Automatic annotation (TrEMBL):
It comes from the Bacteria. Residues 48-118 form the VanZ-like domain. It comes from Modicisalibacter xianhensis. This is VanZ like family protein. InterPro entries: VanZ-like. The chain crosses the membrane at residues 7-31, 37-61, 68-89, 101-118. The lineage of its organism: Bacteria, Pseudomonadati, Pseudomonadota, Gammaproteobacteria, Oceanospirillales. Keywords: Membrane, Transmembrane, Transmembrane helix.
Amino acid sequence: MPTRSRLAWVSAIFFLFFLLFAVGGLIPGALRDTIEVWLGLPFSVPPVAHFMLFVAMAFCLPWAWPRLHVAGTLVIMLVLGAVVELLQAWIPGRTPSLEDFLLDTLGAGLGCLIYLWVNRNAETTAVSLNKEN
């Protein structure tokens, strides 16, 4: 896949996860509870969503914008998590949660580690392929 096309797809995936996080984090509490009951999952959605969405966003962000590097990605992800948590103070039925912010932080850290691992393995594979030619 050409680089521009890959970057466009990764950017689109990042924004999809961002939209899911922003909407999920900013809907009123009663609606969120209704959706969670409707889903009927054997676990609470918010903690899993916080962690998994931040893993996915932190993995995609440095690919979409390589100049950010991992440090920039972590800063953006932590600010995003903090802003959404603080905005919940003004949403009916929602309260800011340090636990959610910590899950965001752990997810962002894991997403960055996965990105570094995948990126390093891709570079190693490219180098070994070049040596064979």
